[in-house]
Protein backbone atom coordinates (compact mmCIF):
# COMPACT_ATOMS: atom_id res chain seq x y z
CA UNK A 1 0.00 0.00 0.00
CA UNK A 2 1.30 3.48 -0.82
CA UNK A 3 0.17 6.20 1.60
CA UNK A 4 -0.82 6.31 5.27
CA UNK A 5 -3.61 8.85 4.97
CA UNK A 6 -7.17 8.04 5.95
CA UNK A 7 -7.72 5.75 2.95
CA UNK A 8 -4.47 3.81 3.41
CA UNK A 9 -4.75 3.39 7.16
CA UNK A 10 -8.41 2.36 7.09
CA UNK A 11 -7.69 -0.15 4.33
CA UNK A 12 -4.65 -1.46 6.24
CA UNK A 13 -6.82 -1.96 9.30
CA UNK A 14 -9.70 -3.58 7.40
CA UNK A 15 -7.40 -5.90 5.44
CA UNK A 16 -5.22 -6.86 8.42
CA UNK A 17 -8.32 -7.62 10.50
CA UNK A 18 -9.34 -10.08 7.77
CA UNK A 19 -5.95 -11.77 7.93
CA UNK A 20 -4.19 -10.19 4.93
CA UNK A 21 -0.47 -9.35 5.29
CA UNK A 22 -0.25 -5.59 4.77
CA UNK A 23 2.70 -3.20 4.44
CA UNK A 24 2.05 0.54 4.17
CA UNK A 25 4.76 2.83 2.80
CA UNK A 26 4.37 6.48 3.82
CA UNK A 27 6.73 9.22 2.76
CA UNK A 28 6.17 11.40 5.85
CA UNK A 29 8.71 10.69 8.60
CA UNK A 30 5.96 10.92 11.22
CA UNK A 31 2.17 11.12 11.06
CA UNK A 32 2.34 14.59 12.57
CA UNK A 33 -0.33 17.00 13.74
CA UNK A 34 -1.27 18.11 10.24
CA UNK A 35 -4.64 19.06 8.86
CA UNK A 36 -7.71 20.47 10.48
CA UNK A 37 -11.35 19.48 10.71
CA UNK A 38 -13.20 16.64 9.01
CA UNK A 39 -16.94 16.00 9.05
CA UNK A 40 -17.60 12.27 9.27
CA UNK A 41 -21.13 11.27 8.28
CA UNK A 42 -22.97 8.05 9.30
CA UNK A 43 -22.09 6.20 6.10
CA UNK A 44 -18.43 6.23 7.25
CA UNK A 45 -19.20 5.88 10.96
CA UNK A 46 -20.75 2.48 10.11
CA UNK A 47 -17.31 1.36 8.88
CA UNK A 48 -15.61 2.73 11.98
CA UNK A 49 -18.09 0.75 14.10
CA UNK A 50 -17.58 -2.42 12.06
CA UNK A 51 -13.82 -2.09 12.60
CA UNK A 52 -14.49 -2.06 16.34
CA UNK A 53 -13.31 1.53 16.72
CA UNK A 54 -16.50 3.34 17.70
CA UNK A 55 -15.72 3.85 21.44
CA UNK A 56 -12.28 5.28 20.62
CA UNK A 57 -13.64 7.38 17.76
CA UNK A 58 -16.44 8.75 19.92
CA UNK A 59 -13.83 9.83 22.49
CA UNK A 60 -11.81 11.87 19.96
CA UNK A 61 -14.71 13.42 18.02
CA UNK A 62 -17.71 15.65 18.69
CA UNK A 63 -21.34 15.20 17.63
CA UNK A 64 -22.82 17.32 14.85
CA UNK A 65 -26.44 17.93 15.75
CA UNK A 66 -27.38 20.12 12.81
CA UNK A 67 -26.23 21.89 9.70
CA UNK A 68 -27.23 25.56 9.67
CA UNK A 69 -27.26 27.52 6.44
CA UNK A 70 -27.02 31.26 7.06
CA UNK A 71 -26.58 34.31 4.89
CA UNK A 72 -23.50 36.49 5.11
CA UNK A 73 -25.11 38.66 7.81
CA UNK A 74 -25.57 35.54 9.94
CA UNK A 75 -29.37 35.34 9.46
CA UNK A 76 -30.80 31.79 9.31
CA UNK A 77 -31.67 30.49 5.83
CA UNK A 78 -32.26 26.79 6.52
CA UNK A 79 -31.54 24.15 9.14
CA UNK A 80 -30.91 20.46 8.64
CA UNK A 81 -31.80 19.21 12.10
CA UNK A 82 -29.87 15.94 12.12
CA UNK A 83 -30.42 15.14 15.81
CA UNK A 84 -34.18 15.55 15.44
CA UNK A 85 -34.84 14.02 12.05
CA UNK A 86 -32.11 11.37 11.93
CA UNK A 87 -31.62 10.46 15.62
CA UNK A 88 -30.41 6.96 14.71
CA UNK A 89 -27.48 8.36 12.71
CA UNK A 90 -24.06 9.44 13.91
CA UNK A 91 -22.72 12.63 12.39
CA UNK A 92 -19.32 13.48 13.91
CA UNK A 93 -16.70 16.23 13.74
CA UNK A 94 -13.02 15.42 14.28
CA UNK A 95 -9.51 16.75 13.79
CA UNK A 96 -7.87 14.91 10.90
CA UNK A 97 -4.68 14.28 12.90
CA UNK A 98 -6.61 12.60 15.74
CA UNK A 99 -8.41 10.31 13.28
CA UNK A 100 -5.12 9.46 11.54
CA UNK A 101 -3.51 8.59 14.89
CA UNK A 102 -6.45 6.35 15.84
CA UNK A 103 -6.39 4.54 12.49
CA UNK A 104 -2.61 4.10 12.65
CA UNK A 105 -2.86 2.48 16.09
CA UNK A 106 -5.73 0.25 14.96
CA UNK A 107 -3.90 -0.84 11.80
CA UNK A 108 -0.77 -1.71 13.80
CA UNK A 109 -2.82 -3.57 16.43
CA UNK A 110 -4.41 -5.62 13.63
CA UNK A 111 -0.92 -6.58 12.42
CA UNK A 112 -0.25 -4.16 9.54
CA UNK A 113 3.34 -2.92 9.06
CA UNK A 114 3.62 0.83 8.57
CA UNK A 115 6.95 2.14 7.30
CA UNK A 116 7.27 5.88 7.76
CA UNK A 117 9.82 7.98 5.89
CA UNK A 118 9.54 5.69 2.85
CA UNK A 119 8.71 7.62 -0.32
CA UNK A 120 7.72 5.41 -3.21
CA UNK A 121 9.50 6.67 -6.32
CA UNK A 122 9.22 3.57 -8.53
CA UNK A 123 6.09 1.43 -8.33
CA UNK A 124 7.02 -1.88 -6.65
CA UNK A 125 6.18 -5.15 -8.36
CA UNK A 126 4.13 -6.97 -5.73
CA UNK A 127 1.12 -9.32 -5.95
CA UNK A 128 -1.24 -6.47 -5.00
CA UNK A 129 -0.33 -2.77 -4.92
CA UNK A 130 -2.88 -0.33 -3.50
CA UNK A 131 -2.44 3.35 -4.31
CA UNK A 132 -3.79 5.32 -1.34
CA UNK A 133 -1.38 8.10 -2.18
CA UNK A 134 -3.75 11.03 -2.44
CA UNK A 135 -4.43 13.66 -5.01
CA UNK A 136 -0.93 13.57 -6.52
CA UNK A 137 -0.93 9.78 -6.75
CA UNK A 138 1.92 7.98 -8.50
CA UNK A 139 -0.21 4.94 -9.26
CA UNK A 140 -3.11 6.85 -10.86
CA UNK A 141 -1.16 7.95 -13.99
CA UNK A 142 0.17 4.41 -14.42
CA UNK A 143 -3.45 3.23 -14.76
CA UNK A 144 -4.97 6.29 -16.46
CA UNK A 145 -2.20 8.15 -18.29
CA UNK A 146 -1.43 11.82 -17.65
CA UNK A 147 -4.40 14.03 -16.67
CA UNK A 148 -4.56 17.75 -16.00
CA UNK A 149 -6.90 19.01 -13.29
CA UNK A 150 -8.33 22.48 -13.76
CA UNK A 151 -8.37 25.32 -11.28
CA UNK A 152 -11.94 26.13 -10.25
CA UNK A 153 -11.19 29.79 -9.62
CA UNK A 154 -11.76 29.16 -5.91
CA UNK A 155 -9.29 29.35 -3.08
CA UNK A 156 -9.85 28.06 0.45
CA UNK A 157 -8.34 29.04 3.77
CA UNK A 158 -8.51 26.79 6.77
CA UNK A 159 -7.77 27.65 10.37
CA UNK A 160 -8.29 26.42 13.92
CA UNK A 161 -9.30 28.71 16.77
CA UNK A 162 -10.34 27.97 20.36
CA UNK A 163 -13.99 26.91 20.60
CA UNK A 164 -16.38 28.75 22.93
CA UNK A 165 -17.31 26.66 25.99
CA UNK A 166 -20.97 26.82 24.88
CA UNK A 167 -20.21 26.26 21.15
CA UNK A 168 -23.26 25.13 19.15
CA UNK A 169 -22.60 21.47 18.17
CA UNK A 170 -23.39 22.21 14.55
CA UNK A 171 -21.75 22.86 11.20
CA UNK A 172 -22.62 26.44 10.25
CA UNK A 173 -22.36 27.64 6.65
CA UNK A 174 -22.37 31.40 5.98
CA UNK A 175 -23.14 32.09 2.31
CA UNK A 176 -22.20 35.37 0.61
CA UNK A 177 -21.87 36.44 -3.01
CA UNK A 178 -18.79 34.73 -4.43
CA UNK A 179 -17.70 33.34 -1.05
CA UNK A 180 -18.75 31.22 1.91
CA UNK A 181 -17.41 30.18 5.29
CA UNK A 182 -18.00 26.91 7.15
CA UNK A 183 -17.27 26.46 10.83
CA UNK A 184 -17.82 23.80 13.46
CA UNK A 185 -16.42 22.80 16.87
CA UNK A 186 -14.15 19.75 16.74
CA UNK A 187 -14.18 18.73 20.37
CA UNK A 188 -11.15 19.10 22.64
CA UNK A 189 -11.62 22.88 22.71
CA UNK A 190 -11.07 23.54 19.00
CA UNK A 191 -13.17 25.23 16.31
CA UNK A 192 -12.51 24.59 12.61
CA UNK A 193 -12.91 27.28 9.96
CA UNK A 194 -12.89 26.78 6.18
CA UNK A 195 -13.42 29.92 4.10
CA UNK A 196 -13.75 29.81 0.32
CA UNK A 197 -13.56 32.72 -2.12
CA UNK A 198 -13.78 32.97 -5.87
CA UNK A 199 -10.64 34.59 -7.17
CA UNK A 200 -8.86 34.16 -10.44
CA UNK A 201 -5.28 34.05 -9.17
CA UNK A 202 -3.90 30.60 -8.74
CA UNK A 203 -2.92 28.80 -5.56
CA UNK A 204 -1.17 25.51 -5.32
CA UNK A 205 -3.16 22.38 -4.53
CA UNK A 206 -1.54 21.38 -1.24
CA UNK A 207 -2.35 21.07 2.44
CA UNK A 208 0.63 22.80 4.02
CA UNK A 209 0.85 26.21 2.34
CA UNK A 210 0.67 29.13 4.78
CA UNK A 211 -1.67 32.05 4.15
CA UNK A 212 -2.08 35.49 5.69
CA UNK A 213 -4.76 35.86 8.42
CA UNK A 214 -5.18 39.57 7.50
CA UNK A 215 -6.06 38.60 3.94
CA UNK A 216 -8.67 36.15 5.24
CA UNK A 217 -10.20 38.81 7.51
CA UNK A 218 -10.30 41.31 4.61
CA UNK A 219 -12.03 38.80 2.30
CA UNK A 220 -14.82 38.26 4.88
CA UNK A 221 -14.96 41.80 6.28
CA UNK A 222 -18.59 42.20 5.20
CA UNK A 223 -19.76 39.06 7.00
CA UNK A 224 -21.71 39.40 10.26
CA UNK A 225 -22.93 37.12 13.06
CA UNK A 226 -20.10 35.33 14.86
CA UNK A 227 -17.76 35.44 11.85
CA UNK A 228 -15.80 38.66 12.65
CA UNK A 229 -15.18 37.48 16.23
CA UNK A 230 -13.93 34.11 15.00
CA UNK A 231 -11.65 35.59 12.35
CA UNK A 232 -10.12 38.02 14.88
CA UNK A 233 -8.76 34.97 16.70
CA UNK A 234 -7.05 33.42 13.68
CA UNK A 235 -3.30 33.42 14.16
CA UNK A 236 -2.23 30.87 11.57
CA UNK A 237 -4.01 29.93 8.37
CA UNK A 238 -3.44 27.42 5.59
CA UNK A 239 -4.47 28.18 2.00
CA UNK A 240 -5.09 25.88 -0.92
CA UNK A 241 -6.39 26.14 -4.46
CA UNK A 242 -9.49 24.10 -5.30
CA UNK A 243 -9.00 21.99 -8.41
CA UNK A 244 -11.46 19.78 -10.20
CA UNK A 245 -10.26 16.32 -11.17
CA UNK A 246 -12.26 13.72 -13.03
CA UNK A 247 -13.06 10.55 -11.14
CA UNK A 248 -10.48 8.05 -12.44
CA UNK A 249 -11.68 5.98 -15.38
CA UNK A 250 -9.49 3.02 -14.43
CA UNK A 251 -9.28 2.14 -10.74
CA UNK A 252 -7.53 -1.19 -11.11
CA UNK A 253 -5.84 -3.59 -13.49
CA UNK A 254 -6.10 -6.84 -11.57
CA UNK A 255 -2.79 -6.31 -9.72
CA UNK A 256 -3.07 -2.69 -8.66
CA UNK A 257 -5.94 -0.57 -7.31
CA UNK A 258 -6.64 3.03 -6.34
CA UNK A 259 -8.56 4.16 -3.26
CA UNK A 260 -9.42 7.51 -1.67
CA UNK A 261 -8.31 10.79 -3.21
CA UNK A 262 -6.04 8.89 -5.60
CA UNK A 263 -9.20 7.64 -7.36
CA UNK A 264 -11.66 10.49 -6.79
CA UNK A 265 -10.40 13.80 -5.41
CA UNK A 266 -13.39 15.99 -4.61
CA UNK A 267 -14.14 19.59 -3.86
CA UNK A 268 -14.86 19.89 -0.13
CA UNK A 269 -18.49 21.08 -0.48
CA UNK A 270 -20.19 17.82 0.52
CA UNK A 271 -17.61 17.04 3.24
CA UNK A 272 -17.15 13.55 1.80
CA UNK A 273 -13.43 13.26 0.90
CA UNK A 274 -12.41 11.32 3.98
CA UNK A 275 -15.81 9.60 4.13
CA UNK A 276 -15.45 8.16 0.61
CA UNK A 277 -11.91 7.04 1.50
CA UNK A 278 -13.27 5.12 4.52
CA UNK A 279 -16.07 3.56 2.43
CA UNK A 280 -13.55 2.53 -0.27
CA UNK A 281 -11.27 0.92 2.28
CA UNK A 282 -13.98 -1.32 3.74
CA UNK A 283 -15.37 -2.35 0.38
CA UNK A 284 -11.95 -3.12 -1.06
CA UNK A 285 -11.20 -5.39 1.91
CA UNK A 286 -14.63 -7.04 1.69
CA UNK A 287 -14.27 -7.69 -2.07
CA UNK A 288 -10.77 -9.14 -1.68
CA UNK A 289 -11.97 -11.31 1.19
CA UNK A 290 -14.97 -12.58 -0.77
CA UNK A 291 -12.84 -13.63 -3.77
CA UNK A 292 -13.03 -15.81 -5.73
CA UNK A 293 -9.85 -14.36 -7.21
CA UNK A 294 -8.07 -11.01 -7.07
CA UNK A 295 -8.96 -9.91 -10.60
CA UNK A 296 -12.67 -10.51 -10.08
CA UNK A 297 -12.52 -8.90 -6.63
CA UNK A 298 -10.87 -5.73 -7.94
CA UNK A 299 -13.28 -5.47 -10.87
CA UNK A 300 -16.17 -5.79 -8.41
CA UNK A 301 -14.61 -3.16 -6.17
CA UNK A 302 -14.49 -0.64 -9.02
CA UNK A 303 -18.02 -1.51 -10.16
CA UNK A 304 -19.35 -0.93 -6.63
CA UNK A 305 -17.47 2.29 -5.96
CA UNK A 306 -17.16 4.28 -9.17
CA UNK A 307 -20.82 5.27 -9.72
CA UNK A 308 -21.32 6.29 -6.10
CA UNK A 309 -18.13 8.36 -5.93
CA UNK A 310 -19.01 9.98 -9.27
CA UNK A 311 -22.38 11.02 -7.87
CA UNK A 312 -20.84 12.46 -4.69
CA UNK A 313 -18.17 14.40 -6.60
CA UNK A 314 -20.87 15.87 -8.89
CA UNK A 315 -22.98 16.87 -5.88
CA UNK A 316 -19.97 18.68 -4.39
CA UNK A 317 -19.40 20.50 -7.70
CA UNK A 318 -23.04 21.67 -7.69
CA UNK A 319 -22.79 22.95 -4.10
CA UNK A 320 -19.84 25.12 -5.11
CA UNK A 321 -22.25 27.10 -7.28
CA UNK A 322 -25.21 27.07 -4.87
CA UNK A 323 -23.28 28.56 -1.94
CA UNK A 324 -21.93 31.52 -3.93
CA UNK A 325 -25.03 32.89 -5.68
CA UNK A 326 -25.27 36.64 -6.31
CA UNK A 327 -27.99 39.23 -6.82
CA UNK A 328 -31.60 38.23 -7.54
CA UNK A 329 -30.79 34.53 -8.01
CA UNK A 330 -29.41 34.49 -4.48
CA UNK A 331 -32.48 36.22 -3.02
CA UNK A 332 -34.83 33.76 -4.75
CA UNK A 333 -32.78 30.71 -3.77
CA UNK A 334 -32.53 31.79 -0.13
CA UNK A 335 -36.26 32.54 0.04
CA UNK A 336 -36.98 29.08 -1.37
CA UNK A 337 -34.68 27.40 1.15
CA UNK A 338 -36.23 29.38 4.03
CA UNK A 339 -39.70 28.24 2.98
CA UNK A 340 -38.75 24.56 2.62
CA UNK A 341 -36.88 24.65 5.92
CA UNK A 342 -39.96 26.05 7.67
CA UNK A 343 -42.71 24.06 5.95
CA UNK A 344 -41.07 20.73 5.14
CA UNK A 345 -37.86 20.52 7.16
CA UNK A 346 -37.28 16.82 6.55
CA UNK A 347 -37.24 17.38 2.78
CA UNK A 348 -33.85 19.08 2.93
CA UNK A 349 -32.29 16.13 4.73
CA UNK A 350 -34.08 13.43 2.79
CA UNK A 351 -32.56 14.80 -0.42
CA UNK A 352 -29.35 13.27 0.93
CA UNK A 353 -30.79 9.94 2.08
CA UNK A 354 -28.93 8.22 -0.79
CA UNK A 355 -25.70 9.52 0.71
CA UNK A 356 -26.17 8.98 4.44
CA UNK A 357 -28.27 5.78 4.43
CA UNK A 358 -25.64 3.87 2.51
CA UNK A 359 -24.16 1.05 4.57
CA UNK A 360 -20.82 -0.18 3.19
CA UNK A 361 -20.70 -2.89 5.84
CA UNK A 362 -23.84 -4.51 4.44
CA UNK A 363 -21.61 -5.93 1.68
C1 LIG B 1 -1.42 16.75 5.25
C2 LIG B 1 -2.88 16.67 4.90
C3 LIG B 1 -3.78 17.48 5.57
C4 LIG B 1 -5.15 17.44 5.24
N1 LIG B 1 -5.99 18.25 5.91
C5 LIG B 1 -7.30 18.20 5.64
C6 LIG B 1 -8.19 19.03 6.35
O1 LIG B 1 -7.78 19.80 7.19
N2 LIG B 1 -9.51 18.96 6.05
C7 LIG B 1 -9.99 18.11 5.08
O2 LIG B 1 -11.20 18.06 4.85
N3 LIG B 1 -9.17 17.30 4.39
C8 LIG B 1 -7.83 17.33 4.65
N4 LIG B 1 -6.98 16.53 3.96
C9 LIG B 1 -7.54 15.69 2.89
C10 LIG B 1 -8.28 14.51 3.40
O3 LIG B 1 -7.54 13.93 4.45
C11 LIG B 1 -8.42 13.60 2.22
O4 LIG B 1 -9.20 14.22 1.21
C12 LIG B 1 -9.17 12.36 2.54
O5 LIG B 1 -9.01 11.99 3.85
C13 LIG B 1 -8.76 11.24 1.60
O6 LIG B 1 -7.58 10.69 2.12
P1 LIG B 1 -6.54 9.86 1.31
O7 LIG B 1 -5.95 8.92 2.30
O8 LIG B 1 -7.10 9.33 0.06
O9 LIG B 1 -5.43 10.92 0.85
P2 LIG B 1 -4.42 11.78 1.73
O10 LIG B 1 -5.02 12.18 3.01
O11 LIG B 1 -3.91 12.84 0.83
O12 LIG B 1 -3.23 10.74 2.06
C14 LIG B 1 -2.28 10.33 1.09
C15 LIG B 1 -1.03 9.88 1.83
O13 LIG B 1 -0.13 9.31 0.89
C16 LIG B 1 1.17 9.78 1.16
N5 LIG B 1 1.92 9.71 -0.09
C17 LIG B 1 1.66 10.38 -1.23
N6 LIG B 1 2.56 10.05 -2.19
C18 LIG B 1 3.39 9.15 -1.62
C19 LIG B 1 4.52 8.43 -2.11
N7 LIG B 1 4.96 8.58 -3.36
N8 LIG B 1 5.14 7.56 -1.28
C20 LIG B 1 4.71 7.39 0.01
N9 LIG B 1 3.65 8.05 0.51
C21 LIG B 1 2.99 8.91 -0.29
C22 LIG B 1 0.94 11.19 1.67
O14 LIG B 1 2.05 11.66 2.43
C23 LIG B 1 -0.30 11.03 2.51
O15 LIG B 1 -0.02 10.67 3.85
C24 LIG B 1 -5.62 16.55 4.23
C25 LIG B 1 -4.71 15.73 3.55
C26 LIG B 1 -3.34 15.77 3.89
C27 LIG B 1 -2.36 14.87 3.18
Automatic annotation (TrEMBL):
UniProt keyword terms in alphabetical order: FAD, Flavoprotein, Monooxygenase, Oxidoreductase
GO MF terms, alphabetically ordered: monooxygenase activity
Tagged with keyword Oxidoreductase: yes
Occurrences of domain FAD-binding (ranges): 2-123, 128-315
Xref: Pfam families: FAD_binding_3
SUPFAM superfamilies tied to this protein: FAD-linked reductases, C-terminal domain, FAD/NAD(P)-binding domain
Signal peptide: none
Cofactor: FAD
InterPro entries listed in its UniProt record: FAD-bd, FAD-dep_Monooxygenase_BioMet, FAD/NAD-bd_sf
Protein name (Swiss-Prot/TrEMBL): FAD-dependent monooxygenase
Source species of the chain: Paracoccus simplex
Amino acid sequence: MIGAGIAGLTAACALAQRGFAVTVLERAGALREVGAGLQISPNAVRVIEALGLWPRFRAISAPSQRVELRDSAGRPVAVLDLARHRPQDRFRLVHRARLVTLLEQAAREAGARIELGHEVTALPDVPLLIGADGVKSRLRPALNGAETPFFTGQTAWRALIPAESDAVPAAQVFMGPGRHLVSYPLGQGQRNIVAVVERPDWHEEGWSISGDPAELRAAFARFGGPVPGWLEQVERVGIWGLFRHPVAAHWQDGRRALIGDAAHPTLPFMAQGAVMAIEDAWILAACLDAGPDQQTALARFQALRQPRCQRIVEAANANARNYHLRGPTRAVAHAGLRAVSRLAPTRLIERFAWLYDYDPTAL
